[in-house]
Amino acid sequence: MRLSVIGCGYLGAVHAAAMASIGHEVIGIDVDSRKVESLSRGEAPFYEPHLQELLTAGVASGRLRFTTDVSEASGASVHFIGVGTPQQKDGSAADLTYVNAAVDALLPHLSAGDVVAGKSTVPVGTAAELAPRIEATGATLVWNPEFLREGWAVKDTIEPDRLVVGVGPSKSSATGEKTDPADVLREVYHPAIAKNTPFIVTDWATAELVKVAANAFLATKISFINAMAEIAEVTGADVTQLADAIGHDVRIGRRFLGAGIGFGGGCLPKDIRAFAARAEELGRGESVAFLREVDAINLRRRDRAVDLVAEAFDGSVFKKKITVLGAAFKPHSDDIRDSPGLDVAVRLHGLGASVTVTDPAAIRNARRLHPQLTYVEDRDEALRGADAVIVVTEWDEYRRQLAPEHAGNLATGRIIVDGRNCLDAGAWRAAGWAYFGMGRP
Ligand code: UDX
Questions:
Q1: Under CATH, what is the fold of the domain 2-197?
Q2: Per-residue pLDDT tens digits for 391-426
Q3: Which of 190, 230, 438, 440 has a CA that sits 20 to 30 A from residue 177's CA?
Q4: The domain 216-437: what is its CATH number?
């Protein structure tokens, strides 16, 4: 099939490359000419495992191209919209500027019978708003939310847990035949369909809500365990053991019960805020009022991490040399959007500490946003002379591959704050470190 993908960020670039890898002919379209040039050379403009291989193969095969010229979408029969929906600058609602711009740009190039598939995370009701403009061209709009996790984006795109397609009220085509846009999407995702991936056909509103509900649930799960960490902190309990114990209940499950400095990234924080804002607009603010609490708990964990470091120094980090292990909002990503760890680093710097940050992938992005911090590529170099060390992103380089004895030979102090509860507390203590976890005695 011939597909176009409008927007080549984390979502669109991966989608375009993944669709080419399963045999489609894909044109990726973005307004950012530097991004398009990089992608056209087969170079991933950001770090995402396996994306590079797919891009190289796709571009070499001739099935994957990128352009800034939206008129090239006219050769495709399915058009995916994968532009960003960031938080508004002056509020908590989603900013739909890019979605509207993408649709406006695409309209003149749509033909009767085309399918436009929205993938961006949008407030419920957006598809119904956009549909009249799109469907006036004879094209059909579906909403096909994306559930990919950064770091696993290629796998999540090619082998998703489930596929969801929201279709509009049924209608007949110009020739009187019934058109089923869901069948078109079945054809697009043929390898996943062949493996019996659940394929849920629903209405626009449900499809839009599935995405925000999933992210709201995940955020709530993380904040739930972080709330338990707060209770553990005043009772001497250990939240990691608590999570293990409740996680054995299959109704609860252990995943996403990792207490620590909380969630960040380009999705969960802005999606729960946008959801709460949309619910208010719909007169149902109270239904998801708990999401404000979920957000507040999450942000408090950053304060807690800063306090833990300060407490280790009897209250003040002023002039202390602190090495921050991690900058990305999570491992296997170079994304620093709303990174809790980087926020903690910036706050420590603000309190007068001399902060050195290292990360296997995210230094370039972090330096651009926070040039005031010191960045060191090499982990061991970053640890040299530190008075205290804090782990904020659980990369294997810190979690598995950093022996406490080795770190002890490099650092001056023996204070380790485990912002992700990812280290073996016993092993670090045995090597002479004062270990501080989040919600752990
Ligand atoms: C998320 C959703 O998982 C994905 O389905 C959706 O499409 C986009 O948003 P992503 O932002 O890539 O994906 O990251 P995710 O793996 O969900 O982690 C989000 C944040 O939560 C990270 O900062 C992570 O460190 C944190 N987290 C995760 C915890 O603090 N504890 C956990 O137990 C799990």
A1: Rossmann fold (3.40.50)
A2: 999 999 999 999 999 999 999 999 999 999 999 999
A3: 190
A4: 3.40.50.720
CA-proximal residue: ligand 1, atom 6 (nearest)? 147
Using CA of residue 420, residue 407, residue 326, residue 53, what is the dihedral sign? Answer: negative
pLDDT digits 0-9 by tens, 8-54: 999 999 999 999 999 999 999 999 999 999 999 999 999 999 999 99
User: Taking the CA of residue 176 as centre, how many other CA atoms within 13 Å lie in the half-sphere pointing to its CB?
Assistant: 0
* Rounded CA Rg of the chain: 24
What is the per-residue burial (b if ≥16 Cβ within 10 Å, else e) of 133-149? bbeebebbbbbbbbbbe
What pLDDT, in 10s, does the model give residues 57-105?
999 999 999 999 999 999 999 999 999 999 999 999 999 999 999 999 9
State pLDDT tens for residues 276-293: 999 999 999 999 999 999
In contact, 325 and 420? CB cutoff 8 Å: no
Query: Could you tell me the distance, in angstroms and rounded to a whole number, from the CA of residue 261 to the centre of ligand 1?
Result: 12
CB 257 within 8 A of CB 247: yes
Q: One of 158, 182, 229, 267 is an active-site residue; which one? A: 267
What is the 203 CA–ligand 1 centroid distance (Å)?
Answer: 26
